[in-house]
Amino acid sequence: MTDRKFEITDASGGVAVPIRVVTNASEAEIVGKTDEGALKIRLVASPAGDPAANTELVEFLASQLEIDVSQIKVLFGEGKRDKIVIIEGLSTEEVDEKLLSGEA
């Protein structure tokens, strides 16, 4: 396990979001953050590196953020469960508010 901490950060034209995907869920949902700070999201599709899981992730995030799917891109980790997603047109604060509003 690494001591590296991840967080949602500003990127050129948008926000970079570290995500850990957990598959085989009954529905897509945000379940919190990992110890490293990545957003933990459950998806129905499996495995995490399958194109269907990446599509489900992008569509789920677009729905939660109320933006078009074209504003979201999996930048790193398409074939893995740990991913970096770029969200264009939103600030770090907007993403935090919309995705983490239920976090304590």
Word description of this protein:
This protein is α+β, with helices and mostly antiparallel strands and 104 residues long. It has a single domain, classed as Conserved Hypothetical Protein Mth637, Chain: A. Helix content is 23%, strand content 32%. Strands 1, 2, 3, 4, 5 and 6 form a six-stranded mixed β-sheet that branches. Strand 5 (72-76) and strand 6 form a beta hairpin. The model has no long low-confidence stretch (mean pLDDT 88).
Topology:
Elements: E1 9-11, E2 14-22, E3 29-33, E4 39-42, H1 51-65, E5 72-76, E6 82-88, H2 92-100
Parallel strand pairs: 2-4
Antiparallel strand pairs: 1-2, 2-6, 3-4, 5-6
Low-confidence runs of at least 5 consecutive residues: none
Helix content: 10-25%
- Helix and strand content put the structural class at alpha+beta
Mind telling me the CATH class?
Answer: Alpha Beta
- CATH superfamily membership, which one? YggU-like
C-alpha geometry: globular
Count of distinct strands: 6
CATH architecture field: 2-Layer Sandwich
The largest sheet, given as strand count, sense and whether it forms a barrel, is: 6 strands, mixed
Q: Count up the domains.
A: 1
- Along the chain, the helix and strand elements come as EEEEHEEH
